[in-house]
From TrEMBL:
Protein's name in the database: SAF domain-containing protein
Membrane-spanning segments: 12-32
Source organism (scientific name): Nocardioides psychrotolerans
Protein origin, superkingdom: Bacteria
Protein keywords: Membrane, Transmembrane, Transmembrane helix
């Protein structure tokens, strides 16, 4: 009769122990990797310069950074937001809220800029709170000259509509729609310089989102 091999010498036992050990190590690494993510505030929808930001406008996104120093560039979801945050530039839906994109509303340099646009060049869905781009193109000065194709170049990008009265309240029978836009002061200056440099400029408003 053959003597049985003691259990602790059975190679199958050691193989099983090795498999369990590898599984434990792999699981620990997976959990450690998951813990590398941080919760940051991101905007839930497109917003424009001059918009006041509150937690109602935000969602939490879990993000992993290769360079952890970059975390400080954004607002942590664990910290309470200041009550007077105002966007200095437009941000897209889902974009992380960068500290450099906001400022105190008390120190804001955002101006309300009025524009008038042919009604057929404004989306009918435009209303106060819409985030828009304003395109500009020069109309041909000479009769019979070929009109330019397309909306032209961006004169303003990611700005918020502050007021958008209906056509009947804008300019009577002129067929133009008036919009009041929240525009950073520097961008407003550049916009009017561009507007004044063109002969018979034509504006087109494009709605984002």
């Amino acid at each position: 009769m053959r003597a049985s091999t003691p259990g602790w010498r059975d190679p199958r036992l050691w193989i099983g122990i090795a498999i369990v050990a590898v599984s434990v190590v792999a699981g620990a690494r997976l959990l450690a990797s998951a813990d590398d993510t941080v919760g940051l505030w991101a905007v839930s929808a497109d917003m424009g310069a001059g918009d006041v930001v509150s937690e109602d406008d935000l969602v939490v996104q879990r993000v992993r950074f290769a360079n952890t120093a970059r975390i400080d560039l954004y607002f942590s979801a664990d910290e309470e937001l200041p009550s007077d945050l105002e966007l200095l530039r437009g941000v897209g839906g889902g974009e992380l809220l960068a500290r450099g994109a906001v400022g105190s509303s008390a120190e804001s340099d955002v101006l309300q800029v009025p524009i008038s646009v042919a009604s057929e060049r404004v989306p009918v869905s435009i209303e106060a709170g819409s985030v828009v781009d304003v395109m500009i193109v020069a109309r041909p000065a000479q009769p019979g000259a070929r009109a330019p194709i397309g909306p032209g170049e961006a004169a303003l990008e990611g700005v918020t509509v502050v007021a958008a009265p209906p056509l009947s309240e804008s300019f009577g029978t002129s067929g133009e729609r008036q919009l009041d836009l929240a525009v950073p002061e520097a961008d407003a200056q550049a916009f009017f310089e561009l507007l004044n440099s063109l002969e018979s400029p034509v504006l087109t408003v494009l709605r984002r989102g």
